[in-house]
């Protein structure tokens, strides 16, 4: 789902809000998450997951074409760790009330 698809879906599900208001809300949420991570802090959304920043130390890498050693500077990279509820939902975990059961693949047969 793209950002614009998210905004369109939220606007459709909330007809009492104008499309421009929904767009402003989504933009504000993303900007706050981004600025918090840029400050090196963590963002936790209960039931969804946590965004954090991991530091990568400087290292010596290799140019894949020439094999020449290349110095790679240290950097910060965003990291997302999904919450338990999100993992269970994606993996077909415990069914939610009123949700249809998830069909699972049969176990692989083993040779006797």
TrEMBL record:
GO BP, sorted A to Z: DNA recombination; regulation of DNA-templated transcription; regulation of translation
Gene Ontology cellular component annotations, sorted alphabetically: chromosome; cytosol
Molecular-function GO terms, alphabetical: DNA binding; structural constituent of chromatin
Region (Disordered) residue spans: 85-112
PROSITE patterns: HISTONE_LIKE (PS00045)
Keywords for the protein's UniProt record, in alphabetical order: DNA recombination, DNA-binding, Transcription, Transcription regulation, Translation regulation
Stretches assigned to coiled coil: none
Biased composition (Low complexity): 92-105
Pfam families, alphabetized: Bac_DNA_binding
Stored SUPFAM superfamilies: IHF-like DNA-binding proteins (SSF47729)
InterPro entries recorded: Hist_DNA-bd, Histone-like_DNA-bd_CS, IHF-like_DNA-bd_dom_sf, IHF_beta
NCBIfam families: hip, PRK00199.1
Family according to the record: Belongs to the bacterial histone-like protein family.
Record function comment: This protein is one of the two subunits of integration host factor, a specific DNA-binding protein that functions in genetic recombination as well as in transcriptional and translational control.
Oligomer and partners: Heterodimer of an alpha and a beta chain.
Name the UniProt record assigns to this protein: Integration host factor subunit beta
């Amino acid at each position: 789902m793209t950002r614009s698809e998210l905004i369109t879906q939220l606007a459709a599900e909330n007809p009492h809000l104008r499309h421009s208001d929904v767009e402003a809300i989504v933009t504000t949420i993303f900007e706050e998450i981004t600025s918090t991570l840029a400050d090196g802090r963590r963002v936790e959304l209960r039931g969804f997951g946590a965004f954090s920043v991991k530091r990568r130390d400087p290292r010596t890498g290799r140019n894949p074409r020439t094999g020449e050693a290349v110095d790679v500077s240290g950097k910060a990279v965003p990291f997302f760790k999904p919450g338990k509820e999100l993992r269970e939902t994606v993996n077909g975990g415990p069914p939610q009330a009123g949700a249809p059961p998830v069909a699972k693949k049969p176990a692989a047969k083993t040779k006797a």
